């Protein structure tokens, strides 16, 4: 019986649940003995000229080994993330420490280095910085108007534009509906914030980083520090969550190398939660105008998506997020005419980066709200409108108007499975009864069908190494990088399936650039289909080498040799066997294989979500009652891990729909600098999710697997938002922007 597809418990968990994880702040490496603490003094203003920085008193404070300002930094700035339409305007690169001007609350200005964190905090209080406030650019319309500029030397806040609009797009449509909607800014809020440690040993520097891709971080640091690869090592210990916000390195981490060399000691930096909420990259932050047109029989003929992306104060990955949104604009629907246009603008706010789904949830939220708006306009059931326009199974591989080639899908089957499991007809009957009775608590039923792109950076591929040790155990090296997903369990299962070695004899190692110099990391739901396939193929290669060697040792024909219960033998003659340990000891050059797997093109997982809510029409309070989903990610290797990813994704997606929002006042002051005022969702607000299973394999990798890590986030958000709007549609409410807080819902009821 195959181990693949079975409910194998995570092999990572016993250590995490007993001894606990080892995060950057827990490291006790010999090279980090006596490490000093680095604390950053950050800007309290969104836009201001720095007129004076006085650090003399701080330098003489007890325990202080150094205080650094921009004048002490001789490193080049961190490069910007580019733009939609070419290079970023000059001057928008990130400085390690602000010089002359600050551009968002939380930008680092001074670095204090002390023996203890308390001493660093005391010394930071002694740093005196004089600011001359400037007008902040916060609102998107302000940014587009270019009357106030984040970078005056650039002459504009608009750093990129992509896409053209056709005035005749909706000429043949009987019905056209248009609406401006907001996909609000949210915080990644990983349990472990950003953290880094750094130590020099001779001319070589080692970084310990809480990140999602050690090799990419190494390459960024090499470029910034001007070091060759052999002089720089990046190690990733346990990582307490990333969600996209820990892709790549940070300018604060790079600065640690200079600080460590100057003070002659190892150093570490671990940000506080308040720092994390104002300084770590935020996600989403798109404003959309959706326009949808079609016939009154429910056929959608044309769709337009106009995007304004807030990238924050410095262009980072946020500058590219609209690319994914435009690529996936048409979603799961066979719409003949689709167009999009995107603009990216800088503002005096925290920079925007990737956040679970990174551009794809934004596309789904837009098209799924548009479908509901269209259904409401023609008086049709939103389920019927979806079914009528979904791409059909026989159309795959399906070429979208946006240029994507969807590999495989059963969109109608997924939708109908969710409707049947929820007993959709009964829900609508209950809804009609409550409306007729004028109930205080109205029922809302929200649907969302989605498709997403996984492993969008497929051409970079991923590396895998499998090696049999002399004791018969196996070592797996992977360029993929776990931060909670269960890579050890999954990759060990793939090796055990091929080699018959018990899971407890398989060690999986990642996140060390000296051991694994080539790799890409974990983002974009790429780990299993790329990293897992690389490990799988390496195991197959080891098996092929072992068969040949076993045949020589047993003195039999290679075609007659088989692997049974982890031992090699002649088929039908189990009296003579060769173990993995014997093979490894016999192999002159070792028994190992390296694979770099590149997928021909990305895969496209899909699914449907149905959310049920109650809305109190007197108070605006929303109660989240049920959530039923199909999330089809191809062949499932471990259902436990798949369900875990779905649970986490649905919770985060629902949180955006109901609660979460990073906001600023008109001067650029963050309104959510702690968990006291940033509404993270908890188990108390969540129902038990009802997870249905569907597996539509892909042919693009031998596992038949697609990504699952971001699926729940993509489907849940519009399903829950649609449910809230649906509960109030009989009152004339057509749209409520996220988050659908009681205040916002109550205002919508009264306006309607």
UniProtKB/TrEMBL annotation:
Keywords carried by this UniProt record: Molybdenum, Oxidoreductase
Keyword Chloroplast belongs to the record: no
InterPro entries for the chain: Ald_Oxase/Xan_DH_a/b, Ald_Oxase/Xan_DH_a/b_sf, Ald_Oxase/xanthine_DH-like, AldOxase/xan_DH_MoCoBD1, AldOxase/xan_DH_MoCoBD2, AldOxase/xan_DH_Mopterin-bd_sf
GO MF terms held by the record: iron ion binding; oxidoreductase activity
SUPFAM superfamilies, sorted: CO dehydrogenase molybdoprotein N-domain-like, Molybdenum cofactor-binding domain
Residue intervals of the Aldehyde oxidase/xanthine dehydrogenase a/b hammerhead domain: 18-135
Pfam families per the UniProt record, alphabetical: Ald_Xan_dh_C, MoCoBD_1, MoCoBD_2
Protein name from the UniProt record: Xanthine dehydrogenase family protein molybdopterin-binding subunit
Organism: Saccharopolyspora terrae
């Amino acid at each position: 019986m195959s181990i693949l597809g079975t409910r194998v418990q995570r092999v990572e968990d016993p250590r995490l649940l007993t001894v606990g994880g080892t995060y950057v702040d827990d490291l006790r490496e010999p090279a980090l003995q006596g490490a000093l603490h680095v604390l950053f003094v950050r800007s309290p203003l969104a836009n201001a000229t720095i007129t004076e920085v006085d650090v003399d008193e701080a330098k003489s404070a007890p325990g202080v080994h150094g205080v650094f300002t921009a004048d002490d930094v001789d490193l080049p700035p961190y490069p910007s993330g580019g733009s939609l339409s070419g290079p970023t305007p000059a001057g928008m690169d990130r400085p390690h420490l602000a010089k002359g001007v600050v551009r968002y609350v939380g930008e680092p200005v001074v670095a204090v280095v002390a023996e203890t964190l308390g001493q660093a905090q005391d010394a930071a209080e002694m740093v005196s910085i004089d600011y001359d406030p400037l007008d902040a650019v916060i609102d998107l319309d302000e940014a587009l108007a270019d009357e106030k500029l984040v970078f005056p030397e650039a002459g504009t806040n608009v750093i990129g534009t992509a896409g053209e609009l056709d005035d005749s797009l909706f000429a043949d449509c009987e019905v056209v509906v248009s609406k401006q909607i907001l996909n609000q800014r949210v915080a990644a809020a990983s349990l472990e914030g950003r953290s880094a440690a750094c130590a020099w040993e001779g001319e070589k520097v080692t970084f310990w980083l809480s990140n999602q891709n050690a090799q990419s971080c190494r390459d960024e640091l090499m470029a910034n520090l001007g070091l060759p690869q052999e002089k720089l090592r990046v190690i990733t210990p346990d990582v307490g969550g990333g969600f996209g916000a820990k892709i790549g390195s940070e300018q604060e981490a790079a600065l640690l190398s200079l600080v460590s060399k100057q003070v002659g000691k190892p150093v570490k930096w671990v940000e506080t939660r308040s720092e994390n909420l104002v300084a770590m990259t935020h996600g989403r932050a798109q404003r959309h105008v959706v326009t949808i047109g079609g016939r009154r029989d429910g056929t959608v003929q044309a769709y337009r998506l106009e995007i304004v992306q807030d990238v924050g104060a410095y262009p980072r990955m946020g500058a590219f997020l609209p690319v994914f949104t435009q690529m996936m604009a048409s979603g799961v629907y066979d719409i003949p005419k689709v167009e999009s246009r995107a603009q990216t603008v800088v503002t005096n706010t925290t920079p925007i980066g990737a956040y679970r789904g990174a551009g794809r949830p934004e596309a789904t939220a837009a098209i799924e709200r548009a479908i509901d708006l269209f259904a409401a306009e023609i008086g049709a059931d939103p389920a019927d409108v979806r079914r009528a326009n979904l791409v059909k199974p026989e159309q795959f591989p399906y070429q979208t108007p946006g240029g994507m080639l969807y590999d495989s899908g059963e969109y109608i089957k997924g939708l109908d499975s969710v409707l049947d499991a929820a007993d959709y007809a009964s829900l609508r009957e209950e809804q009609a009864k409550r409306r007729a009775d004028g109930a205080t608590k109205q029922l809302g039923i929200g649907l969302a069908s989605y498709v997403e792109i996984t492993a969008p950076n497929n051409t970079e591929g991923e590396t895998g190494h499998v090696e049999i040790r002399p004791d018969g155990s196996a070592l797996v090296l992977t360029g993929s990088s776990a931060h909670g997903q269960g890579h050890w369990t999954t990759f060990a299962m793939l090796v055990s399936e091929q080699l018959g070695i018990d899971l407890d004899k398989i060690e999986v190692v990642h996140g060390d650039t000296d051991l694994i110099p080539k790799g890409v990391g974990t983002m974009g739901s790429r780990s299993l289909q790329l990293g897992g396939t690389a490990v799988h193929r390496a195991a197959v290669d080891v098996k092929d080498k072992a068969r040949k060697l076993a045949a020589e040792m047993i003195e039999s024909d290679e075609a007659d040799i088989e692997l049974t219960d982890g031992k090699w033998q002649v088929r039908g003659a189990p009296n003579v066997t060769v173990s993995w340990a014997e093979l490894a000891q016999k192999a002159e050059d070792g028994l190992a294989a390296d694979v770099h797997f590149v997928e021909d093109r990305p895969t496209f997982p899909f699914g449907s979500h149905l959310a049920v809510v109650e809305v109190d029409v007197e108070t605006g309070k929303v109660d989240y009652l049920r959530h039923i989903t199909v999330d089809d990610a191809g062949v499932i290797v471990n259902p436990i891990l798949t369900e875990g990813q779905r649970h986490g994704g649905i919770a985060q997606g629902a949180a955006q729909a109901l609660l979460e929002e990073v906001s600023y006042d008109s001067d650029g002051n963050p309104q959510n600098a702690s968990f006291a005022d940033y509404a993270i969702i908890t188990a108390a607000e969540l129902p038990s999710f009802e997870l249905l299973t569907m597996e539509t394999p892909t042919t693009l990798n031998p596992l038949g697997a697609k990504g699952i890590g971001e699926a729940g986030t993509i489907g849940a958000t519009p399903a829950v938002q649609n449910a809230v709007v649906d509960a109030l549609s009989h009152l004339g409410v057509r749209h409520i922007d996220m988050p659908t807080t009681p205040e916002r819902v109550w205002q919508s009821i009264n306006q309607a």
